[in-house]
Design a protein that fits this description.
Mean pLDDT: 90
Strand content: 15-25%
Order of helices and strands: HEHEHEEEEHHHHHEEHEEHEEH
Low-confidence stretches: none
Distance between the termini: 41 Å
Radius of gyration: 21 Å
Number of helices: 11
Helix content: 25-40%
Shape: globular
Structural class: alpha/beta
């Protein structure tokens, strides 16, 4: 019943799109957002005068770059002066309060799978937010199926990858809806292109960082490890290294740290035996912010907070001796 009501609302909204309207589908680019934006752009074809995809963030992860290249996703960088070029704005895989660049834009449509925040109500002509789904790509796939639109190979591959990444191949999240969408998309996707995207995990210029990570690896309590790699261009480089270490047999958890600009970033990954979000918060709550899920987390704090110690020693000491706060225990 709820599904048919949602589709009826969707059809009404799509039918009401002005043929002279110029849409901007604004995203914080990651695989799920890119795929969902491409799907919405497809649904708007022949309904609006134009629909362009714009991103508010830089794309640096190799798999994201490979996805854009191999699937020819027409995404461009957002600049505030572009606002006058559009009559309407839509958002997928995010909500207006998630990024400062979204502020003050009059969104006509918001489609997302992240939880609602009661302090920031989402107001738009069309709103479809489903926190019980593992990916916005799943919502978009349901749209396509309900509207009897068979996606092409490029779009199917994009949506398939969007579901795969946001659910961590169903290891982190995802339910029956996501699995059903994944199975349906698999019949239409280009698996050879999907494999090329999935294998694009590292850039050649990142390899020296891996060397540093291996050389500075230190043992931590609870069969964990910490490694400090020094200066990095983005936190994505630390994420790539941390994800690599999750494949090492017998390693319960790892913290990979580095300095980006004037900020220290620590990326946590674990096998689930210890809650990484709680560990990140407990170690760095008094100097910055930290949190996340059971298996993955992130902490950030100003470089000034380190004081006269080296960054590596500062972080390692906290990982070794910090006790969990009562609020996060």
């Amino acid at each position: 019943m709820a599904q048919s009501k949602n589709i009826s609302h969707l059809k009404t909204w799509l039918q009401g799109i002005d043929r002279d309207s110029r849409w901007c589908i604004l995203i914080s680019a990651d695989p799920d957002a890119l795929a969902s934006a491409l799907a919405l752009k497809t649904l708007m074809t022949r309904r609006a005068q134009s629909a362009r995809i714009a991103r508010v963030n830089d794309v640096t992860r190799p798999d994201n770059l490979a996805m854009i290249r191999h699937l020819r996703i027409p995404v461009e960088a957002w600049h505030p002066e572009m606002r006058q070029e559009f009559t309407h704005f839509a958002m997928v895989d995010s909500q207006p309060h998630h990024h400062p660049a979204f502020a003050d834009l009059p969104f006509s449509a918001v489609i997302d799978h992240h939880p609602l925040n009661g302090d920031f109500p989402v107001v738009a002509e069309y709103v479809d937010i489903r926190p019980h789904m593992g990916a916005t790509s799943t919502i978009m796939t349901r749209y396509l199926r309900a509207l009897r639109k068979r996606p092409g190979r490029r779009l199917s591959t994009a949506l398939l990858y969007g579901i795969r990444t946001d659910t961590a191949a169903f290891e982190r999240s995802g339910g029956a809806d996501d699995l059903q969408a994944y199975q349906w998309l698999s019949q239409h996707a280009d698996t050879s292109v999907l494999r090329r995207i999935m294998r694009s995990e590292y850039l050649p210029e990142w390899l020296p960082l891996f060397s540093r990570a291996f050389q500075s690896l230190q043992e931590c309590r609870g069969r964990g490890r910490h490694t400090y790699v020094g200066r990095v261009d983005s936190g994505d480089q630390l994420v790539a290294i941390a994800d690599f270490f999750t494949r090492v047999h017998g390693l319960k958890w790892v913290a990979v740290s580095g300095v980006c600009g004037s900020t220290v970033i620590v990326i946590f990954r674990g096998d689930g035996s210890r809650h990484m979000g709680r560990l990140a918060d407990a170690c760095f709550f008094d100097v910055g912010s930290g949190g996340g899920h059971g298996a993955l987390a992130r902490a950030e704090f100003p470089l000034d907070a380190v004081g006269s110690e080296s960054v590596r020693v500062f972080i390692h000491t906290r990982l070794q001796t910090r006790k969990l706060r009562a609020a996060t225990a």
